[in-house]
Amino acid sequence: MRNKVKFIALILILLFILSASVHPLVAPKTSVEATPPVYEFTIKISWLTMKDGMRLSATFFKPVPRTPGEKFPVLFEFLPYRKDDSFYIRDYPIYTYFARRGFIMAKVDIRGTGSSEGAVPPREYSEVELNDALEIIDQLSKIPESNSRVGMWGISWGGFNAIQVAMRQPPALKAILAIDASDDLFHDDVHYIDGAYHVDAYELSIDHENGLPQTPDYKLDEAYFRDRFNAYPWFLAYLKQQADGSFWRKNSLRWNYDKIRIPVYLIGGLLDGYRDSVPRMLENMKVPIKAVIGPWTHAWPDNGEPGPNYEWRYEAVRWWDYWLKDRDTGVTNDPRFTVFIREGHGPDAELKRTPGRWVCEDWPFKGTTWKKFFPGENNELRTQKGKPAVKKLRYVPSYGIATGFWWGEPTGDMRPDDAGSLIFDSLELKEPLEIVGFPRVRLRVSADAPIAHWIARLEDVQPDGTVSLVTGALLNGSQRRSRLEPENLIVGKAYDIEFDMHFTTWTFQPGHRIRLAITNALFPMIWPTPYPMTTQLFLGAENTRLELPVIPSVERRAPAFRPPQPREERSDARYLEGDTWPHGLYEQRRSMWHSTVSVTWKGINTYEIQERRYLTFERNYYETNDKRPAESRFRGEAGHRIELKNRTLYLHTTINMHSDETKFFVTFTREIFENDRLVRKREWKETIPRKFQ
Could you read off the pLDDT of 94-116 as tens digits, one per residue? Predict the structure, then answer.
């Protein structure tokens, strides 16, 4: 018996050897951990010279090779946010994380900003900026320590231009990572939210910083005044582009998904204004994509609020390892889409942690069904159409404050905004209702003015009567047929309009009610439309309804996210005190005598870098008139004090803006002081026609 077993074993071994000679044995492919933090690194500032001779300032975090001739991929971030002062503290914990894991980190100031030479570009994501990025990527791929592969990445601006540069297909760019960025520059960016005019704190702050001198010397020479101080304000440039078109679409991926042909990693936040691009890109692109949407605002996933958070940097290393180092970290075996499903919670403007769970799924969610609700004449929201009726709403432009400054940030009780809305409530739910996606509204409406916006909010009415905002959106009535060809409303004519609300997740719990709120005002997020008016909503028609993307209640895989790790801190710089956007101080005031309502936001920040001290502040004041909405106004003020060893600089920027029925009136002012003495002042005064806003 023993000899028989030996004989069979011998035959099996011979067969194995024979088969291997015909079909060579290939070991099963197994994934490995992401590169561990085993590298020391150096930091160096140097110049990258463009073809026209202009020099751009680059800061490199370079890992020290552990073996002779070791090469590393390069991760490139390209911003106007002043790497040697404004972003000096911000960059360090992110750049060191990747440098310690074997990546050359390259941070470059955009031409005309920060430490780079040249003139401020004419706009965000200009041809100058994008062409420079192509040159930089080519140069980075050829530095001696590089393995010739480049990844481009960033949050907000850095995500926007990573997407737009990838559309131009530079050969050395092998993958991108875009956090809190958008594929639609007109509808989704901060200048025209949902296609309606928006005055943002960011617009003041970026135009203000564009007027600062070049680091590290902060010279107030003629090159500074020519290239920076006198640069035409972007605020005015964007106000002249009030309709969608080639200005916005040329570099908007939404109209050119096939232009990106490399892998894309996307991260968004449920309370970030740019979140809609993530599912759109998942649905429309044909390249490898990894996407995450968490509960936070316009922030980093490891420390953004509200949580819960995860260590996105580790996941990014897995991504970059695979595409830039040929290390199979298993990242391509991950589900394409991971999203945080909110379980529903009460209103809380200071929310720190969102109740809910992470799930992995493809997009769209399999088994999604669309549940219809119909507004009724008694303010109910039913699953069946009611009898025909008409609801009238007087336009009060000052409503909208509870919704916030954009479709993001935690919100408090929505009842103050609901008071200026038509509201429709469902019956109390008997079972949980879980939604993931873009809720839709279809409305039959009319207005007795030629310009009107319609805003829809989806809300959760709690058992105690308080109201949570789930999501919402706006339709500029002039764009009801086409964003490219806006047209005024015909007074009194009924229109069937439809639009998606912004991407959301939510669980309506038993005992809660679903609320649809319809209004025409969203102040101060949107500049008020100019005419007093009354709008009508026609009920009992198929064309007036709410549709919710309901997902099936099934078990779903959870991601293996790691908890956030402590961030490394610089030893030569520190924050002192302050409260910047979106925090800071809010004030609301109402003048019954003048029928005006105002909102003020104030923020301040101070920090030190080596022997330099910086103090920055911003104040934004919004005002509208409930009887004469055309007479709305904005005043923004920003200051930047830089205390150097032997002198002090102070840049002061103001925007004064008001409107009438047909025009915007803007005064933009810059002042630069040295040792408290005014050195130069520049003022732009312009009257710009209102076009469907």
Answer: 999 999 999 999 999 999 999 99
Superfamily of the domain at 41-195+244-335? Alpha/Beta hydrolase fold, catalytic domain (3.40.50.1820)
Is pLDDT of 7 > 60? no
Q: Is the peptide bond before 629 cis (omega within 30 degrees of 0)?
A: no
Going by the DSSP 8-state scheme, the letter that residue 479 receives in this structure is G
Task: Report domain 369-550's class.
Answer: mainly beta
Secondary structure string (H, E, C) spanning 216-259: CCCCCCHHHHHHHHCCCCHHHHHHCCCCCCHHHHCCCHHHCHHH
Closest to 657 measured CA to CA, from 522, 532, 524: 524
Q: How far apart are CA 47 and CA 214, in angstroms?
A: 14
pLDDT given for residue 606 in this prediction: 95
3-state secondary structure 335-380: CCEEEEEECCCCCCCCCCECCEEEEEECCCCCCCEEEEEEECCCCE
Output the furthest CA–CA distance in the chain (Å, rounded): 109
| Structure confidence by residue, pLDDT tens digits, 62-103 | 999 999 999 999 999 999 999 999 999 999 999 999 999 999
Residue among 45, 41, 70 at smallest CA distance from 60: 45
Q: What residue type is assigned to position 134 of the chain?
A: L
Angstrom distance (rounded) from CA 282 to CA 174: 18
Helix and strand tally (H, E) in the chain? 11, 33
- List, for residues 370-393, the tens digit of each pLDDT value: 999 999 999 999 999 999 999 999
Amino acid letter for position 333: N
Q: Which two tokens stand for residue 517?
A: 């709120």
Neighbours of 212 (CB within 10 A): 22
User: What average pLDDT is seen over the chain?
Assistant: 94
Contacts of 561 (CB under 8 A, 6+ apart): 310, 311, 315, 358
Domain ranges of the chain: 41-195+244-335, 369-550, 573-689
Mean pLDDT of 187-191: 96
Structure tokens at 205: 């702050």
Query: Computed from CA positions of residues 305, 465, 502, 479, in that sequence, does the dihedral angle turn out positive or negative?
Result: negative
The answer to whether 532 and 452 are in contact (CB under 8 A) is no
Q: pLDDT at position 31, please?
A: 72
Per-residue pLDDT tens for 468-501? 999 999 999 999 999 999 999 999 999 999 999 9
Report DSSP letters for 437-470, one per residue. Answer: E--EEEEEEEESSS--EEEEEEEEE-TTS-EEEE
Name, in order, each residue with C-beta under 8 angstroms of 299's C-beta and a sequence gap of 6 or more.
180, 269, 272, 305
- Residue 278: alpha-carbon gap to chain centroid: 10
pLDDT in tens, 289-302: 999 999 999 999 99
Per the confidence metrics, is the pTM higher than 0.90?
Answer: yes
> pLDDT class for 408, splitting at 50, 70, 90?
confident
28 exposure class (CB count in 10 Å sphere: 0-12, 13-18, 19+): exposed
Helical pair 312-325 and 88-99, crossing angle rounded to 10 deg: 50
Among 516, 548, 522, smallest CA distance to 422 is for 516
| Amino acid in position 345 | H
- Nearest residue to 109 via CA among 155, 52, 163, 55: 55
pLDDT tier at 8, thresholds 50, 70, 90: very low
Residue 335 identity = P
The Cα 660–Cα 216 span in angstroms is: 44
pLDDT by residue (tens digit) across 416-436? Answer: 999 999 999 999 999 999 999
Distance of CA 405 to the CA centre of its chain: 13
Residue holding tokens 């069937």? 496
